[in-house]
Each structure stands twice: as structure tokens, then as C-alpha cells.
């Protein structure tokens, strides 16, 4: 699979004193290149524009995971309260990751046309009512619809990757993309233990059927707060907001249809859509099934199952960043071919460990050790994937990010529909999913 080389845009404006500045004359907090993209990541900084965009983007994505998968660790309580069957729970899990497929594609257009700031704010504020609406769920239909609409918030991933791609230099963009996405994905692990803890604490104020509903006010409130902060305190591009840059002549007014067609005609994008479906899609699937699986298979209580299940997502604290870093380092020596080899190796290991995980269903220690190793490779493959994405098409970056991100959700939908709706035991479903991962990953061999 070949990938076109990323080219530069118009040279940045430099002040008379030789210090690069944005459109308003503000000097940058970080060293920048000719496009005003940061050449280093300063994690302890929240300075505008680069590091503020970095931190707000992963926080937004984090909260979307927190909300979307809040139901998973509380399934034992929710299924009893709403009288849900295993097929109904499977359908609700599929709905949670299916709703965002088309939303992610649309988010690519939004980012290319209006900027990532509006994309994040729209999703945070627009899906918050569905999060609060879980408190009113009274049966399968309302439960499924709430999970479906909450899942739209996962499209913040596209805006997150777009934002870091336009803020950071090509030599570190893989690391930047992987870290913002990885720390965002961390929400899928945190929610596995946080929601049961909140639920248990709320039992002091009401019965179980009220406590799990009240718990949803925590992620809902986080979405409202973060949406407002991004809307009013963030910046789209290094030089300013989208509208300001267009008005100043720093960028052309985007032609949405032309950009869309440039993206969908690129065969490289479709290869990445398929492969990303079986790294990020696998993570989404595991977020839905891992805590209930541990609860049922090993007879654990809800808090222990949630805490152990959270280990899968918590690897995002560093694993996805390692994948992006590996992509950047191999690219320094071997170019794009190095990035593709890194991706293939990581994702093939992921598939092998997934197969092994499904065969360790009789031992809890073995399951946990393999689950952690499996999680590391899943998230490193995700990081390596978005070390490649910024180089597929610069002009259609948002579209490509949107389609590839949607591929992740589509992969999860396919995996859950085939393997985890009742036709197979959960452990067999995990094994067969591993076989599919290995096969699909052959597409990226350079």
C-alpha cells in the first residue's frame, strides 16, 4: 500500500523581529515550523493554540467514551431493572457504536469546512440530552435509542485527530495523534470502574433502579461543561479561527463537495478503513463485552468485574502513544514503508493474542494477563494507524479521518453482530474475532 507524500501549504507569516506570530500578533509558546505547526509537545502546558487544542481534544474524546460505555459495567443492574435479554443487550451494544458511523463521516466534512472547534462543541452539547435521557429509560426501546444517540459523541475522534494533525509538525504528528486519541480512549477504561463506584455511592440515597439512573448525570454534566469551554476558549488553527484565516487570505474557502470527492476516490483511505475497523473496532467491542464477560464467566461482583475490565481501556494511558512513537521512529529510517510495517506487526500480534484470549476462558489470572497484552497491541496498532492517516491526503484530511474513524465503528458493529449476539459463546466469539483481525491486516503489508 503506497501513500502520497504530504506537502506544505503557504509559508507562515513571520514578524519583523523574526518571531513567528498568529494573525493577532501573538507569539507562539512552542517552537513552530513554516506552517506554524508545533515542533514539540509540552504536556504540562495549556497554552493557546497548540497545547490547548491538544488537551481539550483528548478531554472531549475522553468524555465521549465515558458516556458511551457507561452502561457496560452496570449491565448486571440495568438488565434486571429493565428486564433485558442477551440479544437485546447485544443490539443495544451494537447501537452504541453504530450511530456514530455516519456521524464520523459527516464530522470529516464539518472539520474541513468549519473547523474542529465547532465539531467538538456540537457533539458534546448535542448528545448531552441523550445521556441525561438514560435516567428516563423504561424498557428496551428507550434504552437502545439513548445508547444509539449517545454513541454519536464518539465522532469527536475525527475532530480530535484533525485538530492535532493541523497543530503539530509531521515529525511528531504520529505521537500527537496517538496521544490525544489514546488519552481519549482512556475514558472507555475509566468508565468501567467509575460508573460502578458512582452507582454504589448513590445506593445510600435510593434503591438500585434509581441509583444507576442518577449516575448518568455525571458524564452528562461533563459533556455540557467541556462543550462550552471548547466553543469559547479554543482555536481551530495555529494562526486563528477558520473564519479569521479565510478572511485574512491565509486559506481558501473550502469546497466541501470537491474535498469529499478527493477523499472517497483515494484507495489508500479504503485500505485503512478496513484495517482500522479491526483495531479500534475491536477496542469498542471489548469495551462493551469485557466487564459482563468477567462478571458471568468468573462469578465476580459488579465492582470487581468493572475494575478488572477497566484494565483493558486503561492501557490507553501510554500504549497508543507508543504505537504513534514507533510509527514516527520507523519513518525516520524507512519512510512510509516503515510506518506500514510497524502497523502490520502490531496489528498481527493483536490478532494472535485475541485468539489466545478466547482460549483462556477457564482461568481468571491467564485471562487477565492475556487481556492486558492484547490491549497493548490493540492500542499500539491504533496509534500506528494514525501515524499513517495524515499522509493519505492533506487536502481531504478531515474526510479521510472521518471515513477511517467510521471504519472503526463499522468494524465493531460487524464483530458484535457476527460474534456476540448469541450465536457463539463469548469466548468463541473472541477467538473468531482474532482470526478476522489477522486476515484483514494483510492489506497494509507494503
Short overview:
By secondary structure, the protein is an all-alpha fold. Helices cover 69% and strands 0% of the residues.
Folded structure, characterized:
- The protein is mainly α and 446 residues long.
- The chain is 69% helix and 0% strand.
- The chain is globular and about 65 Å long.
- The protein has helices at 50-68, 75-82, 86-98, 100-113, 116-133, 140-150, 156-167, 173-202, 208-215, 217-233, 242-247, 256-264, 267-276, 280-297, 302-314, 319-334, 336-359, 364-388, 397-419, 426-440.
- The longest helix is centred in the middle third of the chain and has 30 residues, at 173-202.
- It has a single domain (50-444), classed as Growth Hormone, Chain: A, CATH 1.20.1250.20.
- GO terms for molecular function: nitrate transmembrane transporter activity.
Percent helix: 55-70%
The tally of strands reads 0
Can you say what the CATH homologous superfamily is? MFS general substrate transporter like domains
Our Rg estimate from Cα atoms comes to 21 Å
Number of domains: 1
Structural class, from helix and strand content?
A: mainly alpha
Subcellular location: Membrane
InterPro entries: MFS, MFS_trans_sf, NO3_transporter
GO molecular function: nitrate transmembrane transporter activity
Transmembrane segments: 56-78, 90-111, 118-136, 142-163, 183-202, 214-234, 267-290, 302-319, 340-360, 366-389, 396-417, 429-445
Amino acid at each position: 500500500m503506497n501513500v502520497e507524500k504530504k506537502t506544505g501549504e503557504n509559508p507562515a507569516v513571520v514578524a519583523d523581529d523574526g518571531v513567528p506570530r498568529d494573525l493577532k500578533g501573538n507569539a507562539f509558546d512552542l517552537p513552530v515550523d513554516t506552517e506554524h505547526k508545533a515542533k514539540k509537545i509540552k504536556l504540562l502546558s495549556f497554552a493557546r493554540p497548540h497545547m490547548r487544542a491538544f488537551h481539550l481534544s483528548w478531554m472531549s474524546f475522553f468524555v465521549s467514551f465515558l458516556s458511551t460505555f457507561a452502561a457496560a459495567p452496570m449491565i448486571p443492574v440495568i438488565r434486571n431493572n429493565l428486564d433485558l435479554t442477551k440479544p437485546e443487550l447485544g443490539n443495544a451494544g451494537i447501537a452504541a457504536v453504530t450511530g456514530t458511523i455516519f456521524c464520523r463521516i459527516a464530522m470529516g466534512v464539518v472539520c474541513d469546512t468549519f473547523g474542529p472547534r465547532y465539531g467538538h462543541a456540537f457533539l458534546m452539547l448535542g448528545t448531552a440530552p441523550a445521556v441525561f435521557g438514560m435516567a428516563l429509560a423504561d424498557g428496551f426501546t428507550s434504552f437502545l435509542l439513548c445508547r444509539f444517540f449517545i454513541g454519536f459523541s464518539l465522532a469527536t475522534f475525527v475532530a480530535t485527530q484533525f485538530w492535532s494533525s493541523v497543530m503539530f509538525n509531521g515529525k511528531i504528528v504520529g505521537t500527537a495523534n496517538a496521544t490525544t486519541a489514546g488519552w481519549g480512549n482512556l475514558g472507555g477504561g475509566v468508565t468501567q470502574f467509575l460508573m460502578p463506584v458512582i452507582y454504589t455511592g448513590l445506593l445510600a440515597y435510593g434503591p438500585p433502579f434509581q441509583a444507576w439512573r442518577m449516575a448518568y448525570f455525571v458524564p452528562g454534566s461533563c459533556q455540557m461543561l467541556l462543550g462550552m469551554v471548547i466553543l469559547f476558549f479554543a482555536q481551530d488553527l495555529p494562526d486563528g479561527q477558520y473564519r479569521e484565516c479565510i478572511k485574512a487570505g491565509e486559506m481558501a474557502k473550502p469546497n466541501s463537495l470537491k474535498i469529499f470527492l478527493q477523499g472517497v476516490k483515494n484507495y489508500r483511505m479504503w485500505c485503512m478503513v478496513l484495517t482500522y475497523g479491526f483495531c479500534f473496532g475491536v477496542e469498542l467491542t471489548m469495551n462493551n463485552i469485557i466487564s459482563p464477560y468477567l462478571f458471568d464467566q468468573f462469578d465476580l461482583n459488579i465492582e470487581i468485574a468493572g475494575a478488572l475490565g477497566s484494565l483493558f481501556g486503561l492501557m490507553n494511558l501510554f500504549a497508543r502513544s507508543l504505537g504513534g512513537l514507533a510509527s514516527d521512529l520507523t519513518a525516520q529510517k524507512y519512510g512510509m514503508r516503515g510506518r506500514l510495517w510497524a502497523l502490520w506487526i502490531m496489528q498481527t500480534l493483536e490478532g494472535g493474542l485475541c485468539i489466545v484470549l478466547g482460549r483462556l476462558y477457564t482461568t481468571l489470572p491467564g485471562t487477565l494477563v492475556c487481556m492486558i497484552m492484547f490491549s497493548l497491541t490493540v492500542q499500539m496498532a491504533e496509534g500506528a494507524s494514525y501515524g499513517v492517516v495524515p499522509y493519505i491526503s492533506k487536502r481531504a484530511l478531515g474526510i479521510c479521518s472521518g471515513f477511517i474513524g467510521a471504519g472503526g465503528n463499522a468494524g465493531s458493529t460487524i464483530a458484535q453482530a457476527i460474534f456476540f449476539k448469541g450465536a457463539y459463546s463469548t469466548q468463541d466469539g473472541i477467538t473468531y474475532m482474532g482470526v478476522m483481525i489477522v486476515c484483514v491486516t494483510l492489506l497494509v503489508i507494503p
